[in-house]
Design a protein that fits this description.
By secondary structure, this protein is α+β, with helices and mostly antiparallel strands. It has 7 helices and 9 strands, in the order αβααβββββαβααβαβ. It has a single domain (about 1-250), classed as NADH Oxidase (3-Layer(aba) Sandwich), CATH 3.40.109. It has helices at about 1-20, 65-70, 85-95, 155-160, 180-190, 190-210, 225-235, and strands spanning about 45-50, 95-100, 105-110, 120-125, 135-140, 145-150, 175-180, 215-220, 240-250. It has a 7-stranded antiparallel sheet, with helices on both faces. The chain has a two-stranded antiparallel ribbon with strand order 2-3. The protein is globular and about 55 Å long. The termini are far apart. The model has no long low-confidence stretch (mean pLDDT about 90).
Length: about 250
Amino acid sequence: MADSLTHKARMLLKDTIRKEIDFSKTDQSRGAEQPSLQKPCDPRAKRIDLPTIAEWSIGKPPDLVSALFNRQSRRTYLPKPLSIDELGFLLWGTQGIREHTEGRLKYRIVPSAGACHPLETYVFCFRVKDVPPGVYRYLPVGHELALEFTEDKLKEKLVKACLKQEFIGAAAAVFVWAALPYRTEWRYSLAAHRVILLDAGHVCQNLYLACEAIEAGCCAVGAYDQEALDRLLRVDGENEFVIYLAPVGKVQ
């Protein structure tokens, strides 16, 4: 049975890769407007300005070789909180804007196929100085957090949606990336579904390396109850759905 499923999965992946996409029929080629690269935010939502590069107080980061060598998945976290500077640095390092061009948010710290950037970053903040507990969304345009919601027993609900992986609840913050597939489908049609997954990998690897700079650790998580986590995050599960997550906490 396992071999059969593996064969089917391989065939699906190969079909996606080798399928000839008629790029003359994409929404981009038809002249449709490119979808926004940042989901609209409720103007009534509480916002928190994040420190900019010039304002960070995060100590002396390691050199790149050390960060690459020491990078590993870490599932044990100290009870210490993250600072708002550290959280801002991690968010900038995973989805921050490096350069605006022609009114678009094309140049970020991470690569994205066709500069489509199909991901939205949500953060379950449990222990972050100057950030009340709750679920926030990162707004890269203004480098700020927007409060999405708070609710009782949020940590317990997140752990349950993540198949009872208890270490997730011990994190100071949990990064959750949701995909809005049309952002990439607009340009790549069916080929979008492969490159969206690649984009998620780029983002999470940057989180690993950024954590090494602030004496923190993270662990990429792909095992969760899709419907339960989408429901907890309050996304519709079709036009936007969770694709990846990673708890973050201070380590020895």
